[in-house]
Amino acid sequence: MPKLVVKSREETSAKWVEETPRRSTYYQRYTAAAAGQWEANTLAAATTYKNAISAPDIDRRFVGGVKRAGAAKFARKVTEVGVARFAPGVSAAKTDYESAIAPYLDELAKIDVPPRKPRGDPGNLDRVKAIFEALRKKKLAMLAAGP
């Protein structure tokens, strides 16, 4: 039986680095157009996702993946990729951030917090509790309501 001819890691990665960046126009054109299909397929996969994250050995798999990648790869990717993408990513996310934070800012504006007590008074924790309870209730209501 004939053997497969397999290129080396170096040859394969060199071709990947050379060719893949040229596909950015393809990525831009077709990936955005597939958003509806992505949403439908992702929603249909909810049960599969739940089963996957509930697998008996999921913690072991998770730990294995983290160890395989390692801290060195994490640091290298932050330095080589993440830093350059950080500021443009934040700018691109401005409207998403605004729409995501708006319901919580509106909720904060409605909260009546108890009066401030002297420094160190445990009664000041009631102020924190009022904020926590209102924001938690808002988050759960939004999750239950869906988009």
Number of helices: 7
Given the helix and strand composition, which structural class is it?
mainly alpha
Contiguous uncertain segments of 5+ residues: none
User: What sort of overall outline do the alpha carbons produce when their principal axes are compared?
Assistant: elongated
Strand content: under 5%
Mean pLDDT: 92
**Helix content, binned percent:** over 70%
Output the helix-strand order: HHHHHHH
Description:
The protein has 147 residues and is mainly alpha-helical. Among the domains are: 35-95, no CATH class; 111-146, no CATH class. It is built from seven helices and no strands. The longest helix has 35 residues, at 58-92. It is elongated.
Provide a compact summary of the structure.
By secondary structure, this protein is an all-alpha fold.
Topology:
Layout: H1 9-19, H2 24-33, H3 35-44, H4 46-53, H5 58-92, H6 94-110, H7 125-145
Helix pairs in contact: 6-7
Using brief descriptors, characterize the structure shown.
147 residues, mainly alpha, 7 helices
